[in-house]
Amino acid sequence: QKELDYLVGAVANPKKPFAAIVGGSKVSTKIGVIESLLSTVDILLLGGGMIYTFYKAQGHAVGSSLLEEDKLDLARSLMEKAKSKGVSLLLPTDVVIADKFAPDANSK
Fold first, then answer.
1. Cβ–Cβ contacts within 10 Å for residue 37, how many?
2. pLDDT tens digit string along 9-25?
3. For this UniProt entry, which residues form the secretion signal (predicted)?
């Protein structure tokens, strides 16, 4: 309860600059959280599998990475909304690629 109370207070009346990190595999499950945070944060860092939908929306090749093709317009919209609100929406600058999802995969 103490952690929850702190979190609610931190989001309702944040100290500036206010940054948040959101991760997950799908943009579709984080839409509400991301849109809500865009009204509050100065910096929003995204991680997890959802980044590939944002990369693809920016025109980057993502190979066979997890991707929500039907959410590309949403990703573009969220990036534009962040820009218009002056929010720095940050994606990872590097990723690990591999030929399969396994401990013995060839990766770089």
1. 21
2. 777 778 889 999 999 89
3. none
23-60 per-position pLDDT tens digit? 989 888 888 889 989 999 999 999 999 999 999 999 99
Q: Which amino acid is at 69?
A: E
Buried/exposed code over 68-81 (b: 16+ C-beta within 10 A; e: otherwise): beebbebbeebbee
Given a contact cutoff of 8 angstroms between Cβ atoms, the answer to whether 64 and 75 are in contact is: no
Instruction: Return the closest-CA partner of residue 72 out of 92, 43, 48, 52.
Output: 52
Structure tokens at 106: 């060839």
Q: Which residues contact 97 (CB under 8 A, 6 or more apart)?
A: 63, 107, 108
Neighbours of 87 (CB within 10 A): 22
